[in-house]
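**User:** My hope is that you can spare some time for a protein that puzzles me. I have put the entry right below:
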Amino acid sequence: MDISDEGRSLDPVWLEISNNVCGVLAGAQGGSWVAERFTGAGWSSRSGSSWESYEVETSWCRIEVDPGDGDTLLNGVVDPQRFEDLASLLTRFGLRFILELYDDDGELLRESEAGTPSAPRDAATGL
């Protein structure tokens, strides 16, 4: 996969927060294949923290794409207001996924699965 720096860089406001998004892409064809989909959508990409991982980003999101045993893992930071945009993008790529958004205290705020719309969780009930 070619590395692309043509996409937009992460907005500096998101550089200071901890990772707040993680997910699993079921049956994706590897990190390179996933990164290529993001660069095709105008995101930038570069080598990640391992030999087979990639970091992809745009102004509102930066995620590490890390292939695992059969699944590809995602983790990083997303503007919480754009969480659904990330889920929609994964859906447009034709990927099956589970994507989770967390608050600063590590509490699950939203979840999206295989392109289904997410619903805010009630902090008291967890539903």
